[in-house]
Amino acid sequence: MSLVATTAFGLEAIVKRELEGLGFADLQVSDGMVEFQGDFKAVARANLNLRSADRIYVKIGEFKALTFDELFEGVKALPWSDWIPADGVFPVTGKAVKSILHSVPDCQAITKKAVVESLKKKYGLSIFPENGAAYMIRVALHKDIASLLLDTSGEALHRRGYRLQGVEASLKETLAAALVQLSFWEPGRLLLDPFCGSGTIPIEAALIGREIAPGLLRSFAAEKWGCSPAAPWQEERELARSRIKPLSEPLIEASDMDSEAIAVSEANARRAHVTDDIHFTRKMLNELWIDREYGIVICNPPYGERMGELRDARQNYFDLGRIFRKKTGWSVYVITPDWDFERRFGAVAERKRKLFNGGMEVTYYQYFGRKPK
Fold first, then answer.
1. Contact between residue 321 and residue 285 where contact means Cβ atoms under 8 Å apart
2. How far is CA 54 from the centre of its chain?
3. 359: pLDDT confidence band, cut at 50, 70 and 90?
4. Using CA atoms, how far apart are residues 202 and 265, in angstroms rounded to an integer?
5. Which residues, in sequence order, are CB contacts of 264 under 8 Å at separation 6+?
6. Which residues lie across from 165 on neighbouring strands?
7. Residue 252 phi, psi (nearest 5)
8. How far apart are CA 30 and CA 3, in angstroms?
9. With contact defined as beta carbons under 8 Å apart, do 180 and 335 qualify?
10. Mean pLDDT over residues 84-99, rounded?
């Protein structure tokens, strides 16, 4: 099968590297996606293990569509009955970029109608009950090429299953995992998040450090498909569990000024089974006392566009710089939408990377310290 891992813009290289680490080759990278080949074992492996991908799709077909008639006939000709049973639920989502067929609602409606017509020939039904398993269809048009995809994930992959509730300035789990993977952190080095919020960055780091597959706490849409055998899912889960290991010292340090945020973080960490790997404390930023020569800071400082919130955010940037600029053995990584960060921090970043946190464009500022001997 042709499989597609979608991701937020800017994270394609991370997802490619993850796929290579899982044993996949011949990867094709384009904006917001990485395409690869595999069977249902590959579907299970990718869903369970990818940390920075949004969803895993099966590509059912691809063709040029300049008119709605071409879209309808192209979709109708695809082998939908090989995938969708008579009672299958098959909603349609869509996207159109730089295409003549730019009306997404119309493309979705035409795709749905074409799939129904295709299934009518197979099952001899005029009305489909749609009360079985979910087979979510995505029609994606890019430069007049229509790609028809089936969503194997169900809920997006950032839904790990450990988050009980969120607090302000929270990141998607997939982005938090990417921030860690884009840093120099590795097990055995101290990691500090002084704005931990709901604990997403330290929890994702603990999962990475212990090699805990991010999908172990949840299920996926394709597991309920009649065409998907159960054995690959069971085998991949057992393999993932066999790789879990303890986290090397020193452990991860996470703090926040909000006691409610610390309570939420601790609850999420318990749910993720990494409680013993993270030390959470309620602490103001200016109360930090850095007594180690080497370490890594990865953080998402709270940010608000209202005057008072913006003033507080920029004071945080100043305090971060005051604390860490002279700590030459520390690497500092900060994600923020504030264009004025470097001036407030007091230093120009060695590297900057444009990313997206939800729909907001952000920059990942990276300051590299000396590596431990």
1. no
2. 5
3. confident
4. 9
5. 164, 165, 166, 167, 198, 199
6. none
7. -90, 135
8. 13
9. no
10. 95
In whole angstroms, what is the distance from residue 206 CA to residue 266 CA?
A: 13
Terminal CA-to-CA distance of the chain, rounded, Å? 46
- C-alpha gyration radius of the chain: 23
Residue found by looking up tokens 């159960």 in the block: 230
The type of residue at 324 is F
SS3 of the chain: helix, strand, coil, percent, to 5: 35, 25, 45
Helix axes 231-242, 40-49, angle to 10 degrees: 40
Model confidence over 126-138: pLDDT tens digits? Answer: 899 999 999 999 9
Token pair 């990942």 is at which residue?
364
Place of tokens 């789990």: 173
Q: How far apart, in Å, are the Cα atoms of 183 and each of 22, 89, 142, 219, 240?
A: 20, 41, 33, 29, 24
User: Could you tell me which residues are beta bridge partners of residue 139?
Assistant: 94, 148
Share of the chain above pLDDT 90, in %: 87
The answer to whether residues 333 and 181 touch, using CB atoms and an 8 Å cutoff, is no
Which ranges of 124-214 does DSSP label H, i.e. alpha helix?
A: 173-181, 200-209
Pairing of strands 191-193, 295-299: parallel
